[in-house]
Amino acid sequence: MSTTLFGIVDDRALGTSMRLIVTRPDGLAAAKMAVDQVVKSIDDAASRFRDDSELSRVNREAGREVRVSPLLAQAIAASLRGARLTDGAVDPTVGSAVKLAGYDRDFASIPPDGSPINLSVTRVRGWQAIQFDEGARVVFVPRGVEIDLGATAKALAADLAASAAHQAVRAGGVLVSLGGDIAVAGDPPFEGWAVQTSEDSNAPINDGEETISIESGGIATSSITVRRWTRGGVDLHHIIDPSTGLPVVGRWRTASVVAASCVDANIASTAAIVMGDSAITWLAANRLPARLVDRDGTVHRVSGWPNS
Ligand code: AMP
Ligand code: MG
After folding, report:
1. Among 38, 99, 213, 270, which one has the highest count of C-beta atoms within 10 angstroms of its own C-beta?
2. pTM score, two decimals?
């Protein structure tokens, strides 16, 4: 029996954990450089926590047409594609609602408890209000609307980083995980890429946890159990129901989805949390294998997830 030795490096990026694995350990340094460059570019383009990001500038210029970089254009296109595919369950115009609920800075700086805040039920403006000319890379965000690319930009970074790292190594296979948003590129290991499905991306790799194997594309997990806080004793979290503008109150606390890319997996995992019960038929119609955990911890494996 042969033992496969991979090159692995752990780091932090985009406010979360990052892991890079290459099947050719001698390519690790080149792959890491490629990943770092992609991650930095995405942070410069799409961070909503940095006043100097390109996205912050677009939001400040709401009410005017703005020409954006190719990378931000790609991230905006991905978010609008998500909105179309999910009939608006994933909607980049949740920006103000996310902030109003209390998620207005890097998660590590958000106080876990605080005094009551005033929240009212208000449907978000809606993705159709964004005018985007993808060819010309010109975006128009109406005044009063804030774009949030949280549900797609990190996954896009994983997809782009995996492919850039693979190009840098020019052989073997690469896996990039950004806080549990995972993309792979190149030739997978013989037994596939083993991925542990945990609700918290910081959970240690543990023999007792459910593990699946993927060969291409990506996998993403969305959860309301980790990025959460309380205000005036009320539990709040980071996934917004666009129809109410408030944190989702629904059946699932965690959703993991496998798809042809990490972006598509992430669109579907966020959408599943928002859709609740109806996610099961939507996932099946889109042939997206998913693992859904309901509020009491019961696991539902649907749409071709192993053991479903
Ligand atoms: P994820 O953890 O991948 O499900 O992405 C959640 C992040 O996307 C949140 O932290 C928000 O920044 C943003 N977000 C929250 N709710 C939505 C929604 N309904 N549609 C699009 N983005 C959202
Ligand atoms: Mg995600």
Report:
1. 270
2. 0.95
